[in-house]
Amino acid sequence: MSNSADLRGHRDGCYPVNTMNSPAGHPGLPEVIFLVEESPEGGFTARALGESIFTEAEDLADLHAKVRDAVRCHFDEGGLPKIIRLHFVREEVITA
């Protein structure tokens, strides 16, 4: 038995085709996923997974508006995703 994974049907060898673009069970509803982190300077940064989209905001309301604006600027009108998913990540360092 081989230890190598079968990557046929996978984009970039990472995820099955359309995994990052469609919610589970809803292939007709494309989405874009943003990784959101608190900025050391205050506010938030948001980076899209699989797309070249990045934005910053001072608060959550501003983040929502800026992410929507960035998505509208990045995609053609006919290709706009129906869902924007924000995945919040928080890193915390503690002493051992």
Description:
With about 100 residues, this protein is α+β, with helices and mostly antiparallel strands. The protein has a domain at about 30-95: TTHA1013/TTHA0281-like (2-Layer Sandwich), CATH 3.30.2390. The chain contains 1 helix and 6 strands; from the N terminus they run βββββαβ. The chain has one helix at about 60-75; strands at about 10, 15, 30-40, 45-50, 55, 85-90. The strands form 2 sheets. The chain has a 4-stranded mixed β-sheet, with helices on one face. The longest helix is centred in the last third of the chain and has 15 residues, at about 60-75. The radius of gyration is 16 Å and the shape is elongated. It starts with 9 loop residues before the first strand and ends in a 7-residue tail after the last strand. Residues about 1-30 have low confidence and may be disordered.
Keywords:
96 residues; alpha+beta; TTHA1013/TTHA0281-like; four-stranded mixed sheet; two-stranded antiparallel ribbon; 6 strands; elongated; disordered N terminus
